[in-house]
Design a protein that fits this description.
This protein is mainly beta. Helix content is 11%, strand content 43%. The chain is built from four helices and 14 strands. Strands 3-4-5-6-7-8-9-10-11-12-13-14 form a twelve-stranded antiparallel β-barrel. Strands 1-2 form a two-stranded parallel sheet. Strand 8 and strand 9 form a beta hairpin. The longest helix is centred in the first third of the chain and has 16 residues.
Length: 402
């Protein structure tokens, strides 16, 4: 034990301090509780004959001298070393005060619940997308009677509406539906029988259900159905060549559908291959019995049977088909919409290729160029074009997309 002597000396000094008449503790007591130091005046006070120190000071000096003589190894420093290390700063004579601003009222701390209520918004996924577009366009052509190249003045009006409703569950299934309606009328001075006759007439539904096979391929069941709104006539001819549900075509195909995205998604659409297809065609009008009459009493003449035998109203052909429906945005103002459909029963074939070039003049004004070649070897061939048929028009007018 290193400290017993010092502890005993401190106890003796405290006992002497307790014997003092006053309660003031001598300041020299700190020497007993700080690191042990050799003080110069300890020995001089003890050896002095005229010492004025009190009992407390004598007790502290005797305790320190006892330690100096018996345990000098406990002395850590001397009074000379303490003086050389310096003393407390005396240049600070003003107390340092803290400037604190007090307020009369303190804002109460709000009591927050341990668990804050959270509003959870559940949004129902949108599986259906709907869109559409339409246009109403006009065309007028005037040719004077004495025009050196000849010709005929005509007026035409064309309206079109396309609506789509497509289902996609963002998984494996999709269901695409498109309804197209076109109706146009033409008037010409050379036609003495008809004030107006249709030059564009179409009502068509395309619907297909697909199950995803890969990223872009789908197993697909496709249904096509199309007919027209009104009678199909020719200039200065009493006969009716087509009518509503005459013919009506219904085509069902089983195959695969490919989703097209190319040229930074400027070319989009689908290509459908149906190696197994069934085509149903129906004609409601009955062939007028007397085709040699000079002027029939009604428009019941129907010389074209659209490949159906004269004694029947329908035909059913199994075969294969191809359908491609593409849109190519060639520029910010020019768009090419193309639809290619082909069906073969391996004893007859039909091919239709519809092309619409749309020029966007402004937000609501567009100009259209429509090119429509068609092949059909189910009817009698033409002397000039054979089994090929061709249709074309140019128009300008109002358009709107939604």
């Amino acid at each position: 034990m290193k400290k017993p002597t010092l502890i005993l000396a401190a106890f003796c000094a405290l006992s002497a301090s307790a014997a003092q008449p006053n309660d003031t503790v001598n300041a020299r007591l700190y020497r007993l509780f700080t690191p042990l130091t050799f003080y110069h005046n300890v020995s001089s006070n003890i050896l002095s004959l005229n010492s004025e120190s009190n009992d407390m000071d004598e007790a502290v000096d005797k305790a320190l001298m006892n330690v100096y003589l018996n345990r000098p190894d406990l002395v850590e420093t001397t009074e000379t070393q303490l003086q050389e290390s310096g003393s407390l700063r005396e240049d600070i004579d003003m107390p340092i005060k803290q400037h604190a601003e007090l307020t009369e009222h303190v804002a109460p701390t709000p009591d927050e619940p341990e668990v804050l209520p959270t509003e959870v918004e559940v949004t129902k996924p949108k599986f259906w997308t709907k869109k559409g577009d339409g246009f109403l366009q006009f065309m007028q052509n005037y040719v004077s009677d004495n025009w050196y190249k000849g010709g005929e003045s005509t007026y035409s009006l064309l309206g079109s509406l396309t609506v789509e409703a497509n289902y996609d569950n963002k998984g494996k299934w999709k269901w695409d539906n498109k309804l197209e309606a076109k109706l146009g009328f033409l008037t010409a001075k050379s036609d003495s029988l008809h004030k107006w006759k249709s030059n564009e007439d179409l009502l068509r539904l395309t619907s297909k259900v697909g199950l995803q096979a890969t990223k872009r391929w789908y197993y697909t069941l496709q249904l096509l159905a199309w007919t027209q709104f009104t009678r199909g006539l020719k200039s200065n001819d009493h006969r009716t060549y087509s009518d509503f549900f005459s013919p009506f075509n219904l085509n069902v195909g089983l195959g695969m559908d490919y989703k097209v995205e190319a040229f930074n998604k400027k070319l989009t659409g689908t290509i459908n291959l149906s190696p197994i297809a069934l085509n149903y065609r129906y004609v409601g009008r009955t062939l007028f019995p007397d085709q040699n009459a000079a002027k029939p009493t009604s428009y019941s003449w129907f010389p074209s049977r659209h490949g159906i035998d004269a004694d029947k109203h329908y035909m059913l052909d199994p075969g294969s088909q191809l359908t491609a429906d593409l849109t190519w945005k060639l520029s910010e103002t020019v768009t090419w919409k193309s639809r290619l459909w082909g069906f073969t029963s391996y004893h007859r074939a039909e091919v239709e290729w519809e092309n619409t070039f749309q020029l966007k003049v402004s937000k609501y004004i567009t100009a259209n160029v429509f090119l429509y070649p068609r092949f059909d070897d189910g009817n009698a061939p033409d002397d000039d074009l054979g089994y090929w048929q061709f249709k074309e028009y140019t128009s300008i007018g109002l358009s709107y997309s939604f």
